[in-house]
Design brief:
By secondary structure, the chain is α/β, with parallel strands linked by helices. 51% of the residues lie in helices and 11% in strands. The chain is built from twelve helices and nine strands. It has a six-stranded parallel β-sheet with strand order 3-2-1-4-5-6. A three-stranded mixed β-sheet has the order 7-8-9, sandwiched between helices. Helix 11 runs antiparallel to helix 12. The two termini are 46 Å apart.
């Protein structure tokens, strides 16, 4: 028997997929209607979280944050069966994941943090990525079941909390990418370039393909033999900002990048590869 706590878009689709694979699933959500909606697919909804986890040997969580996870688990504790395994897909702090792993082990339960890079569609289709780290015996025992929920389980070793950190690293990239894309669209607006033309550019030219090489260059510590000098990248960045200012279009990210470039140029790195701005990060 599986219990699933948190029936948002991700959790509800996980439940539907599990039921489709023949699993029995008991569900709970703070807003009860989101749980009862899953009864149409074969889930059994409970208004009380303690009752929802009763008789379940495996409890999954897709909640909001550390506080919510701690609060819900505290409320559910009285209903947990001896030896139950808690598998938490919530994006949390690394410290929180470490603390919960230790706390629930001391209480006689297994807690495994398994955050995901999966949207609702991935949860329904069993595609995407699930991250794990910590006790390798626990991971080895539960990886087959987790693999059925996702396209790939990525094991980051025996350090508790590392999976949580890796999820934050991935999300930080997504946030930066989206903010940078927003500035790109703002620049297109300032230059009176239609969005359809922006789409045409990126449908033909995929800058994401350069990510592995860019990461390798940035982390190598060697910024000589530049492919793009920092001073030239800074020149172009000024062109972006000047065009936006002329059209009274606000840029959120690029001015901060320009300031960072200026800091490195002032330190004498203008002729180095522009990836030198990441030197302090390594």
């Amino acid at each position: 028997m599986i219990a699933f706590l948190g029936m948002g878009l991700l959790g509800s689709n996980f439940v539907r997929a599990l039921i489709g694979k023949g699993e029995q699933v008991q569900v709970w959500n703070r807003t009860a209607s989101k749980a009862t909606a899953l009864e149409a697919y074969g889930a059994k909804a409970f208004p009380d979280v303690t009752a929802a986890v009763h008789s379940a040997n495996r409890i999954h969580l897709t909640l909001k944050d550390d506080h919510t996870v701690n609060e819900v688990l505290a409320a559910a504790a009285a209903g947990l069966q001896p030896g139950a395994v808690i598998i938490d897909h919530t994006t949390t702090s690394a410290e929180g994941a470490v603390a919960r792993t230790k706390e629930w082990k001391e209480r006689g339960f297994t807690y495994l943090h398994a955050p995901v890079f999966m949207g609702p569609a991935n949860a329904l289709d069993g595609t995407g990525y699930m991250l794990v780290s910590g006790d390798q015996a626990v991971i080895g025992a539960w990886e087959p079941a987790l693999s059925k929920m996702t396209g790939k389980v990525i094991n980051f070793g025996d350090t508790p909390g590392k999976a949580a950190g890796m999820k934050l690293i991935g999300n930080s990239f997504l946030v930066g990418l989206t903010a940078g894309l927003a500035d790109t669209l703002s620049l297109a607006k300032a230059l009176a370039i239609p969005l359809s033309d922006v789409s045409t550019l990126f449908n033909s030219w995929n800058p994401g393909g350069a990510l592995p090489a860019r990461l390798q260059r940035m982390t190598s510590g060697n910024y000589s033999s530049p492919s793009w000098e920092l001073s030239m990248a800074r020149k172009d960045t000024q062109l972006f900002m000047d065009a936006a200012k002329k059209s009274d279009v606000k840029l959120a990210v690029l001015p901060a990048i320009a300031a960072e470039m200026d800091r490195w140029i002032e330190k004498g790195h203008g002729n180095d590869d522009w990836t030198v701005i990441g030197k302090d990060s390594i």
